[in-house]
Amino acid sequence: MVGLLVAAAVAAAMPAAIDAPAPNADPAIFVVRDPDTTVYIFGTFHALDGKTDWFNDQVRTAFDSSSELVLETLVPEGPKPYAPSRPPRLGMSVAPSASFLATTRMAIDAGRSQGLKVNYGADMILREEAEATGKQVDGLETLDSQLNMFAKMPPMAAAAPPKVGEPVDESPVETLSRSMVEMQNAWNRGDQSVFVRMLDQLRQASPDTYRMLFAERNSRWADWIAGRMQTPGTVFVAVGAGHLAGKDSLLVRLAQLGIESQRVN
């Protein structure tokens, strides 16, 4: 169970037919602002099936009005070489744990079975659009810091094998596939409740994993936004939708710093 939940958190194929408009989606977007600074906070889904039109309405308006895009991290294989300026790099290469690699493989297999692709994911679409229009693109974390975090995660608990004569339930990949479809549908609707439930299950099953993946990172990102609010301008911050849900969400952490957020849509 822990492995499935972490895979869903880490993960978090065919484009729509040309002759039919894609269904409209309204993923959640929030804003914090003061007299001279506006920070939009958009909850992304890292791999999508390309069958809905989400980059429109309030999301598009907020993005177009922003001069800077800030993602969770920038992978080296971006369209343009990029040297992140903050936070500083760790100065060392960290190999992800075997547990993390296995979990990632399961997430990839589950997503592929449902037609989900990173190239259709909100993060990739936003980055490509930002670079095409000359916006500054930055990352909240470096790739090294993420790998270091994954290397320190506790091992995933293996599922108990079925007893003799006991019916075999669906495979872990099938279970995860179903969960990912449920989360993508919730994301399309802007429904945070599914992510709240997933996070509660993860917190109960593996408190350390939950703390490292969500609570601690949300706190660091809230500090970053609080610091960015001291510089005038408009910024579009895009992080996984799970970071905007639950009692330790980025939005809750901001409120604890005295920065109130409002939902745009």
Automatic annotation (TrEMBL):
Keywords: Signal. Residues 1-19 form the signal peptide. InterPro entries: TraB/PrgY/GumN_fam, YbaP-like. CDD domains: Tiki (cd14789). The keyword Ribonucleoprotein does not apply. Transmembrane segments: none annotated. The keyword Translocase does not apply. PANTHER family: CYTOPLASMIC PROTEIN, CYTOPLASMIC PROTEIN-RELATED. This is TraB/GumN family protein.
